[in-house]
Amino acid sequence: MEPKSKVLIIAGSDSSGGAGVQADIKTVTALGSYAMTAITAVTAQNTTGVKSIIAIRPKEISNQIEFSAKDIKPNAIKIGMLHSKGVILAVIKSLKKIKVNKSVLDPVMVAKGGTKLINNTAIIYIKKKLMKKILLITPNIPEAEILTNIKINSIKDMIKAGKILISLGAKNVLIKGGHLKSKKMNDILINKKTIKVFISKKYNSKNTHGTGCTLSSAIATYLSCGKDLINSCELGIKYVNEAIKSNLKLGKGNGPINHLNSITINKRFSK
Question: What range defines the domain where residue 164 resides?
Fold first, then answer.
């Protein structure tokens, strides 16, 4: 089987494999595409929390992006953890050079265990500089609250937050409703012309580490294969929901989801 497309992942490393670039690579590969990476930070973490974070220099992040794309042109880009102003400006500069139109930003700010992964200046630069350059931004409710400075307690609030982000220059916003207290899962896609609510079953599981990374990578992969934005979001949400439904039991804390849920692996053993 040959890869359907190529996706460049710009994100931090998660040593436990549940989130970050590791989750991104698994997602892109499981969906049949080819994954390339530019590592923005190296974290030591497991399902119980984050022990340490080592930042990669902006110049080295740019080198990874530009040198990889020069040889293998990506069809789409997924962006995750960008921890500082310098990193954000370097990524913007590199994106301008490699000229890939399909890009998805997961504005990673806080790890599942509560550790902050981004400084306040970086949040400002995501809002004022990066967001305008991206096709789709995919904040969860806590991230949307930080970006918009409003409290989100309902679907109405989610739509309001999405409209605020559009007014700040975002082209398309998918606000993820996993933190909302509701019986169903409501994810909302908003742009200047459309408000689309994706309703799906909500699974009660503590093993949801890496869901945001996985969703943004899945959407980027579907976009890279030529799907339109609404269909890419719909298929990405379905992939993540099935991965949560599998309810992997790995680790002592918030465990990962099952990125292999969409594929069948045939093992052949020879004597």
Answer: 6-258
